[in-house]
Amino acid sequence: MAVDYKEWYDKHFHELTGQGIWLRGGEMNTLESEQFDKRNYRILITRLSTYKDTSVSFTHKLLYQIATANNDLYADFAYLPPELDVDIFARDGVPWFLGTNSKMPGTSFDMIAISNSIIEEIMNMATFLKRSNFPVKKSERIHNNEYPLVILGGANALYTSILHNENTPVDGIFVGEEPELIEQLFSIANEAKKRGATKEAILEELEGVSGFFQPDKVKKTSKFVSTSISEKQLLKNAPIFFAEEQLGTGNLQISEGCPCFCSFCAESWGRKPYREVKPEVLKQAALKMKASMGLETMELYSFNFNMHSNFYTILRDMSHLFANVGLKSQRFDTIAQDPELIKFLHVAGKASITCGLEGISQRLRKYLHKSLVDSTLRNSISILLRAPLRELKIFLIATGFETEEDYTEYKEFLTFINETLALSGRRPRIIFSMTPLVRFPYTPLEDKDAPDPSICREIILQTERLTRCRGFEFRDSTEVSNYFFSQIIVRATDPLVMDSLFSAMEISKFIFYREIPPYVVEQMAKDLKYRSLEVEQVMKGAEKETIENHVCTINVNDSFMGRQSEAVDDFVDRGYCLGDVDKEGTCKACGACESQEMKDSMTALRDERKLSLESLKKVIKDRQNIFNTSFKIEVPYKMRGIPRKSIGIAIARAIMLSYPQLTVPFHKYESSFVNSHYFTDWIHGDDIITLSFLTSSKENFDSIVNQENFIDTINSRLDGWCMVKGLHSDDVKSLQMQIESEYPFDISPYFKLTGLKYTARKGGENQYICDFTKESLKKKVIDYCAYTKSETGATVLITPRPKFVFNEFLSCSFDVPTEAHYSRISAKIVIKD
Ligand code: SF4
Ligand code: SF4
Fold it and tell me: Who is most buried in 161, 253, 463, 650, counting CB within 10 A?
């Protein structure tokens, strides 16, 4: 049995970034670590990015939900250690493949399931394996049972040709999103383990699943995309990460794929056809998710939310169920088609809009096949700028061949925005951001050469100058170094490119987090040269033969792809197929729809909006009519450090799971007494948590909370997150704080800082009680203080008053080796009734 790292973590958590919360494990809706020994097959879901970066990913949570639905499977998470933790891991020999829940190393698992959603994460592949004491090459692991299978999937799996060679670091690659196929992969591996099958035999069996292949002996496969969205694709009881900004927020996928044919949009080409989830299904899923994840906000996930034919029904339903509804990006043309949309979004509280303009001129938008003509764009901008927006974000793409004519057109566009703003009398924040165009495989841009990063840099700088000159904000959203590596990674076919990449990473000792410094680019160029490859060569468009020999087929047929590729060269935009309320669409014969029926429903006239602005206003007004309820709780020592909102969410979850009739009425987490007074998550003991509910449910709510067994019922669902002691309606009149520390203690600096005068008298052996002067008591900092010193530390009892600052007290009174050690001091509150 391999050694676990629980003891190591307990001893060193304070040294890690954010006091090691990212590695703590035990998030809500995750399996207890004891299940590690009880379940047959163990999967370590791994991201080559950090916990913080991954907490926003909903596919990551979905993968866990899918795996753990099978009672034979244990799943755990592993992440890239944050930058400052890398040396600590190295110092103590801790592997990067480390289950955050179980604290078991990668070698104790049966499968490492790497979810690769950002291209540049591939740069960390070899380092991750080495730092986990795994041989980098599949060939060096495959016959050694000490190492689990290493399988790569995720949104970027289709673009990993760089790994398709004999020296590949991964054992298998799965391309696809269908939950049923992911279930099948896990279940085949699980059953094969029971039979004692070898890793090689398991991989061969996995090749039977659509989209799975071995990168060292590629057998052609096809990426399966179901014609409807499975309910399994919706989150229900997914893990809730310890990320303050994510707590209480769920993601609801309302559609899959996109009907448009933007030439640059790899995700759209690989996920056709466009499919929608019905509002009734979404409502039921949202209710389940709200209860099991303690949600107050629902983010609607789709490529373009307002393309959903039932968007208004969904908006109304979600506004009825949640305190906040989040909506991400949309297309300019759909705003022009439906000018009323902005009013609805405003009523729903959305004051910030994000739209993709992409090309800076009509010519470039045609190259990018954005299907957005100038008149529609201007119409849409006028609608947006007349609305009470706070912020408008506009995405641009640097294609690499912008000309003076394109810049002139862009200047005219910016002037048009300024004139429209002047007429509307509004001044929303307008932010442009630009990213270089990465030409992906499986898109019409696959055969097009990619420009040198220096060309993209110049274009971005020029666009920035023009934008800023006209009074708008500008951000370059991706460094050109990131573009360079992304482009090389997605298009590499020569095995030497992978060798160069891993060697450049090793020599430059670089780990990818977000930005890539120029010296890594230089090292990569040097390494390529050493292997007789030129940068220009690896940035070149794919040859016909490469395209014909793709390892995987997607739903779009080759002839359509070929036609689109020619259209790009000719700057011709053929539009997309979806119908709108005024005009039926036309099938462009991309091959993604299986039947005429599907094509017909795609191109059919869309229903008129049935929801009136007034009725949405009413739904939202009803939602704002709320009352607060407070609970007195006790937070156990082991829950110190996690965001206090997690505890509030746990209580809301327990209430909704126990009393489903309170699911719609639950509004949101409001506050924690301890957090709002002491600004830390590191105090345990008593607290007052306040939640809000709809006033319309007050009677029902009162009858439930007055039931004799209400508190016991809630506590039975809290799984140790906290203990609810009862409802709390008064102000907190008095409380006591007990602090225990193993570090040297001296009270006088704190009293000096706060100007408190006192005399310390002996209360017992090594115990001192401070008697404050009347003047000092009037300062309302501390009423009572007694402390007992031991050889190594102290126990302090205080009665804090409103002006007491917890962190100030700690930093003045305890002599800790580093600031991080404050998290090793135990502080407990007892609220007196
Ligand atoms: S509209 Fe274009 S860029 Fe947006 S998701 Fe669809 S294909 Fe991609
Ligand atoms: S087959 Fe026709 S209707 Fe279906 S997605 Fe392709 S172009 Fe649209």
Answer: 650
Is residue 528 within 8 A of residue 538, CB to CB? The reply is yes
Statement: residue 477 has pLDDT above 80: no
Q: CB neighbours of 198 closer than 8 A, spacing ≥ 6?
A: none
Ligand 2 atom closest to the Cα of residue 602 is 3
Q: Under a CB-based contact definition with an 8 Å cutoff, are residues 788 and 767 in contact?
A: yes
Q: What is the pTM of this model?
A: 0.94
pLDDT at residue 245 greater than cutoff 90: no
Helix (H/G/I), strand (E/B), else coil: 762: strand
CB 667 within 8 A of CB 694: yes
Confidence (pLDDT) at 271: 93
Pocket lining: 271 vs ligand 2, CB cutoff 6 Å = no
Report which secondary-structure segment, H or E, holds 783.
strand 782-789
With 70 as the cut, is the pLDDT of residue 604 above it? yes
- Residue 195 CA: distances (Å) to CA of 52, 72, 151, 189: 39, 14, 20, 10
Tens of pLDDT along 127-175?
A: 999 999 999 999 999 999 999 999 999 999 999 999 999 999 999 999 9
Residue 478 has pLDDT above 80, yes or no: no
Pocket test for ligand 2, best of 260, 261, 272, 307 (most atoms within 8 A of CB): 272
Residue 574 CA to ligand 1 center (angstroms) comes to: 14
Backbone phi and psi for residue 87, each to the nearest 5 degrees, phi listed first: -70, -35
Distance from residue 289's CA to the centre of ligand 2 (Å)? 32
- What pLDDT sits at residue 304? 84
pLDDT, the chain, mean: 94
225 pLDDT exceeds 90? no
Q: What angle do CA 571, 574, 580 make, to 5 degrees?
A: 140
- Do 345 and 370 meet the contact criterion of CB atoms below 8 Å apart? no
H or E, element range at 800:
strand 794-800
User: Which residues pair with residue 789 across a beta bridge?
Assistant: 794
Which of 255, 265, 357, 371, when mutated, tests ligand 1's pocket best, judged by the most ligand atoms within 8 Å of its CB? 265
Single-letter residue type at 40? N
User: 125 CA distance to ligand 2 centroid (A)?
Assistant: 37
CB 195 within 8 A of CB 205: no
Summarize pLDDT for 542-561 with one digit per residue, the tens.
999 999 999 999 999 999 99
Task: Report the helix count and the strand count for the chain, using DSSP H and E.
Answer: 32, 27
Residues 6+ apart with CB under 8 A from 32: none
Tell me the pLDDT band of 581, cut-offs 50, 70 and 90: confident
Closest CA relative to residue 312, chosen from 336, 348, 273: 348
Q: What is the pLDDT of residues 667-686, one digit of tens each?
A: 999 999 999 999 999 999 99
Tokens of 829: 């509150």
Confidence category of residue 1, pLDDT binned at 50, 70, 90? low
Q: What are phi and psi of 717, to 5 degrees?
A: -100, 0
Distances in Å between the alpha carbon of 503 and those of 217, 498, 500, 552? 23, 8, 5, 28
Given this model, what pLDDT does residue 607 score?
Answer: 83
- Ligand 1, atom 2, lies closest to the CA of 262
3-state secondary structure 86-144: HHHHHHHCCCCCECCCCCCEHHHCCEEEEECCCHHHHHHHHHHHHCCCCCCCHHHCCCC
